[in-house]
Design a protein that fits this description.
Number of strands of chain A: 10
Structural class of chain A: alpha/beta
CATH topology of chain A: TIM Barrel
Number of helices of chain A: 13
Oligomer: homodimer
Largest interface: A-B, 62 and 62 residues
Distance between the termini of chain A: 25 Å
Chain lengths: 308, 308
């Protein structure tokens, strides 16, 4: 598996997922209170340098275990922001490390703002040579299509990927996303509005689009509606595992490809990073627990796409 | 004007606006290409330390001019994020400086995520002793009410303010926000859904709520609809000035108070930070230009609330 920096994002992601036989994405959500004792340092106060260092060492160790076994990782920027500028420095190093290990990186930032500000965010994360350069980013559509355009322009120019929130995995997601319009719920209308952008960012090799969408594993029915409206948009599926979505539900929006179901990635954060099994106070026990959690998720999802 | 750290956010903001006689909020959007030559350093590359330093010196100078003349400033975090961890360090210092000058700080971050992640963001910005401690933050409602709850809990516990995006100022804002439900547009439904939270965060002195909303000056009709549904929510109004909204439009959602119209703040970023008048290469000319831009906005908005 060799990284091609200029390959179309969706083509690259799909090629790797086909190679590995499963769509697992490892979410990097370093909840301070759950970092294994072997990595934790001092009182883990959010402003201390020691805490940022502990997060970095923990995530580097996770990346070492994930490298070669998954196609992609998804750092959640909130957990780095809560450590202030030191957390952002840590995020920078985690992203660089992941990419050096041939892992694709989706930054889970859910950004969304008006034109000139969206341009600032796009420049921060999708521009070659930017301080934190990632392969893809998650975006919020509430501000409308013009707010997504600066990201789409970068995605096109620099082979990056975008995942726009359509139907999120949380219990309250319906408050706004499922409001009923005359012909569809709001999230369905968002999906339809994204169709031209999806077409514009389609890959030449696989046909899959670098304009992806976020659709929670907890709402498999909704996933099918979104897939009808966006037949070639990559899905980033949160909510598998700890949040309650099972593997078959998580791949409900996938479609038949050469090696089984395909069309996106399924994220697991807590389930992989903080497995409950065993005494994790010792490094070998901790490593075994993470490996076992990775095996379990890979097997479950691999089976779901092979069978489906 | 003396800062009371534990005073209810809306009560405090309204008291200061009444005292000053105008609702101007100065937006801190340091567009790299527009920073006056007297502050710019080197090639202003986003990753260089010199750039972060230039942004800091520029904004410190702006804060010195704004102190005592406006109640509140609004740093836009995207422009700091694009400088990586050094930008976040700069933001930390800018926020601390503003608060030490008795300016309230609204962080324009438009965050929104599911429960445990929203908690991370809330801890990052609204918790006493957090790395970047601000008085209020802007939020995106697309993920539903449960995604706002961790922020509401902090607002209640630590006297902070929230401004939820309802109707934004950009041309594409209608793509989603104005989709028509059976009884109202989406943004109207969002406003209604926020009513219980607004009531919960109401201030004892003025009755104004620390659960505020963002409503663009470019859509005065929509502002009136939002005000009907949220009679005591503070308005944060972007889009005044450079984006095309005039002063009377900007205060269209305000209501009669003891000293004229009140009920929110009107933001100007570019219009104050980057006035076109004069030769800004020299420090005194630059200071005069900023002072004049501040005077102009203060006069216009002061007149609009006095007349209205």
């Amino acid at each position: 598996m060799t990284r091609s920096k200029n390959l179309h994002f969706a083509d690259q992601l799909i090629a790797r997922v086909r190679e590995l036989g499963h769509p697992l994405c490892v979410g990097l959500d370093p909840h301070l209170g759950e970092i294994p004792p072997v990595f934790a340092k001092g009182d883990m106060a959010p402003t201390s340098e020691a805490t940022a260092k502990a997060v970095e060492e923990f995530l580097f160790a996770v990346l070492d275990r994930a490298a070669g076994r998954v196609a992609v990782v998804k750092p959640q920027i909130a957990f780095f922001e809560q450590l202030g500028h030191r957390g952002i420095e840590t995020l920078t190093r985690v992203v660089d490390r992941a990419r050096s290990l041939d892992l694709l990186v989706i930054l889970d930032a859910k950004r969304g703002d008006i034109g000139s500000t969206a341009d600032g965010y796009a420049r921060a994360y999708l521009e070659p040579g930017s301080p934190i350069e990632v392969d893809a980013i998650t975006l919020n559509p509430y501000l409308g299509l013009d707010s997504l355009e600066p990201f789409a322009a970068r995605a096109e120019a620099h082979a990056r990927g975008l995942f726009v929130l359509v139907k999120t995995s949380n219990p309250g997601s319906g408050d706004l996303q499922n409001l009923e319009l005359s012909d569809a719920p709001v999230f369905g209308s968002v999906a339809s509005a994204l169709a031209p952008m999806a077409q514009r960012l389609a890959g030449k090799e696989t046909g899959w689009s670098s304009l992806g969408v976020v659709v929670g594993a907890t709402y498999p029915g909704e996933a099918q509606l979104v897939r009808e409206r966006l037949p070639k948009a990559l899905f980033l599926v949160p909510g598998y595992g700890t949040q309650g979505g099972n593997a078959p539900d998580a791949v409900r929006g996938f479609v038949r490809g050469p090696n089984g179901l395909e069309g996106g990635v399924v994220n697991s954060s807590r389930g992989v990073l903080f497995p409950e099994a065993g005494d994790t106070a010792q490094a070998p026990a901790w490593e075994q627990a993470i490996d076992a959690a990775l095996d379990r998720a890979i097997d479950e999802l691999g089976e779901a796409v092979a069978k489906g």
